Structures are given as C-alpha cells and as structure tokens.
C-alpha cells in the first residue's frame, strides 16, 4: 500500500513517542479527514480518564463515519479499529528515539504551558498539574515495556489479519 493511495478510514498506531501525532496532523492537513486523538477523548481534566464503556462508545461512533484519522493505541479497541480501517499505519520508531522524544516533550510541556498535553487538560490550563517526574519515569518504563513485550504481538496479529491494509513507517 502506498501513502498516496491511502483510504479514507485511517488508524495510526505505535509506541509513545513514535510520531503518531506528527503524522496524523500531516495526513489531516493533506486529506482533510476528521482527526481524532484518542488521548483527547480518553482524558478529562486533572488526568482523570473517562469510564471504559463511554470511551468504547465514543470510538464506535467515530468508526461509523466514512472518513477519519485515529491516532493512538489503546489496546482494548485496536483490533476493532483495524477491522473498520481502510489503512493501518504502524510507526516503527526505534526505542531510543521514542524515549528521547518523550523526554523532549516533557520538557516542552514544562516550558510552553502544556503544548503537547491532551486537549482538555491544556484548555483547562491544567498543565501545572502535569504528571510528576515520577509519572514521567513510569511512562518511560511503560514505553520500554510496550516496545519489548507488546509491540511485536500487536504487529504480528495485525499483519496476519490485515496485511493488505498495513503501511509500516520506519523512522
């Protein structure tokens, strides 16, 4: 599959820090399809998540649309999103680069008022309540675990079930 011959229902998955949001914004600008960042849907103010059933319902509503770009992992719905997508873009970014980008984003959030935080937290001016350094460390650990334990399984399942829909981007 070719990035210029992309469908109208696109999902982008990959490790935290892999470039999902960067790519989703570029595709949104090029194709004008509605863009949905799963972090913006999942998180309310003060880093409180919405209930799982509400999150799933919102995803199902998006999947009914004729056009979309969905940026994010959230494993509970990844295979459902893959079924409904025309194109599955998998970001294959090296772990060291993902970790670097997360640290860079953390520093930018502290310096630039939460520039890279989920929308509801940013708009509510909650960037000062941004996750602590301990939480940043835990997020880095999660990113390592995702790359070591989960990414390969997710990729193998998606490739075996949806190989004709997949574009892998190595950065």
TrEMBL record:
InterPro entries: Cytidylate_Kinase-2, P-loop_NTPase. Gene3D superfamilies: P-loop containing nucleotide triphosphate hydrolases. SUPFAM superfamilies: P-loop containing nucleoside triphosphate hydrolases. This is Putative DNA topology modulation protein FlaR. It comes from Staphylococcus gallinarum.
């Amino acid at each position: 599959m070719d990035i210029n011959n992309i469908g109208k229902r696109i999902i982008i998955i990959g490790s935290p820090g892999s470039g999902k949001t960067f790519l989703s914004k570029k595709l949104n600008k090029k194709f004008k399809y509605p863009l949905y960042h799963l972090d913006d849907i999942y998180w309310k103010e003060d880093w409180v998540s919405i209930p799982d059933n509400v999150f799933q319902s919102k995803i199902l509503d998006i999947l009914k649309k004729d056009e979309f770009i969905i940026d994010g992992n959230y494993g509970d719905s990844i295979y459902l999103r893959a079924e409904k997508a025309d194109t599955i873009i998998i970001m294959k970014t090296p772990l060291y680069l993902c970790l670097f980008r997360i640290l860079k984003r953390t520093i930018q959030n502290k310096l630039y008022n939460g520039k890279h935080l989920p929308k509801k937290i940013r708009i509510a001016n909650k960037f000062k309540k941004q996750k602590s350094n301990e939480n940043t460390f835990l997020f880095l650990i999660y990113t390592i675990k995702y790359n070591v334990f989960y990414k390969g399984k997710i990729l193998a399942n998606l490739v075996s079930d949806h190989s004709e829909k997949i574009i892998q981007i190595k950065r």
